[in-house]
From TrEMBL:
Keywords: Cobalamin biosynthesis, Cobalt, Lyase, Metal-binding
EC number: 4.99.1.3
Protein name, entry field: Sirohydrochlorin cobaltochelatase
Organism, as annotated: Haloferax mediterranei (strain ATCC 33500 / DSM 1411 / JCM 8866 / NBRC 14739 / NCIMB 2177 / R-4)
NCBIfam families per record: PRK02395.1-1, PRK02395.1-3
Transmembrane segments: none
Lineage of source species: Archaea, Methanobacteriati, Methanobacteriota, Stenosarchaea group, Halobacteria
Enzymatic class: lyase
BP-aspect Gene Ontology terms: cobalamin biosynthetic process
Gene Ontology molecular function terms on file: metal ion binding; sirohydrochlorin cobaltochelatase activity
Amino acid sequence: MQALVIVAHGSHLNPDSSAPTYDHADTIRDVDAFDEVRTGFWKEEPSIREVLRTVESDEVYVVPLFVSEGYFTEQVIPRELRLDGWNVSDWESDGLSASHVTLTADDVPEKRVHYCGPVGTHEAMTDVIVRRAESVTGDPNVGGGFGLAVVGHGTERNENSAKAIEYHADRIREKGRFDEVQALYMDEEPEVDDVTDFFESDDIVVVPLFIADGFHTQEDIPEDMGLTDDYRMGYDVPAAVDGHDIWYAGAVGTEGLMADVVLERAADAGADIGDTLEVVRERTRKTPQAGD
């Protein structure tokens, strides 16, 4: 038997924080890719510390629903899972290339735990960002005449924080689908506050590389970009700002296709998922109309 465990941050303050994790777990559960699908959280129940005890399977694939490699994926999650012999050097990563490492856990030594890199650095996340642009505009062919801003938190304390943003912006730029592609940040230059300064395109799609909608994506970014003076009053999609139409997509992690990235991570670590990748892609292929 094989199990999938999706681990995420969660929040004691924001009840919506865990919603994407549960949604993607349900999607994967529905396609019968694994005998068991479990979720675990740092700030909610069930906790990461206890989740392995709830699993019966002897092969367990743990996928972190995080954007970048860093403190949580390298320290908190391995510690809470009690991974025996964990060493971040086992990933042999440059901040983008963490794949997986197979270990045991002190609590459940009879199980093999395949600990995977975060979803945010997987190449499949590029497609989710593009899908997010399709969803917010209601156009499966969106690209020509549009600019695309991929937005991250950014921090000088962790250089890996910006790497995932730059990585996906570069990959999308190389495809040539959008007229302009720019990586922007909340806490470092270039800042999302000045989004219209970085684009000539009349239409700009803004996709935050965040797992869940919360304080930053629902309050800070819309106000910083000038979509609204008060997030509680809402804003238009698209919203007119400095002569541009801003199509603000909200957190990329809420896109249904994220389940594909979770499956990709587990498959890369050796999980037998059959044709479920194709099934998930088909189920999430329909592009909703803007405003739905």
